[in-house]
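Continuing the series of single-chain predictions for the mutant panel. This is the parent chain; the variants come on the following pages.
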Amino acid sequence: MKKTLWFFALLFLLMPYTRPRYGGELKLELPASGNPLFWDGLLKDSFTFVNIFYLDSRGKAGSFLFSHWWEKEGKWYFQLKEGLLYGDATPILPQDVANSINAFLQTSQPGALSLKRTITSIGVEPPDRVVVEVSSSANLPLLLSTPYLFLRKEGKFSGPFVPQQEGIFVANPFFPGGRPYLDRILLVYPPEIPDMSFTQGFEGRAAFSVRYLVYLLVSPKVWRKLSRRAIFSLVSSLAWKTRADSYLPPQLSQFSLDFPLIRVGRLRGYLRRKVVMALSPALASMVGELKEGASLARVKVEVNLSETPLEDLLSGKVSAALFPSQAVFVGSEAEELVGMIERYRLDRFYPYLTNLKKKILSYMGKDEKKLEKAVSSTYEYMASREFFFPVAVADQPIYLKNSFLEGGKDFYGRPLMWKIRRALPQPHEGEVNTSSQAH
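Parent structure:
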């Protein structure tokens, strides 16, 4: 009896350390404000919208919206859960889901092309079922689990947090995945630390890390011999922590860091060249490396942090730009190649890519041999002109202070923000920073 009493007493003492701790505000500092080309934009959308499907850390498909789903005679049936509500307590309808999928099919986001080729029609069966007809046998829940596909409806918020005012998101009590532990998220942009060095004086840990390729895109307006040599010499002088070659198809990998060397006899002409490069604030940590590399390579470089580096390049304000790949989810290599052309508007630089893209689209799902040849031809065209190619693999860690506990991540490395919760009660526990930084 005495041992039993001691056991229950111990459980009582441990209870505050084990039960969920609701409440608190988490201050999140992001280097970018939500540009769709960058990971930060996806993370911000994940606050306010719920994905149609998701992949857990083991790659298993799941959904907060559907209780179950099945395939029968070329159609997929998705049964909506009972009592689903938006943040304003209005009901989530099956037509809203159908409309969201239809709208996504018209975009160039990763995963959209595979879905567009697979889905024939989308409808609803009242009162609570979504029906999707497919053209061929496919694992539709897997295709629907691209992290860019959200339940979206004008003025409605289905995610774990609801925007209250600029930069402030409050917990959504009706979130289909359950009430978030945090009361609020305060989104700060730009970060309060001017030099973007998030780890200085920061008592925390790298809780998550997102990996992506970094592409170099050069404007053909400055694609003259000396400019090209200056750009290549600058990029090849950088001490990239991870080369991109092993991640690439053979047609591109040979060009990724194999740049022509500058001859001494041409040095004077070479020194006159100046590289003006645009970077998103998400890549601000690369600025120091770029300037150091330029000094070693004896190249003049001007680095501009810009929310719209692609527009700056198209308008001729800069001669080159660095972009992280958006391809967190792709259905195939051909889809990713078409996605790159569309997302970065490469056909604006080289119109012939429009014809190559049409060939790829016409062969997809019909003639694999011709498709493979078209993909290879497109890579060779891009590589031979050396205007768009990957140069490095970058990691973007997200640092979390020790006074909060992480809630895990999904298959794509995206942190589950609604599962982050306070650790043991501490003084001033209402103010915590998480910060993301690209290397």
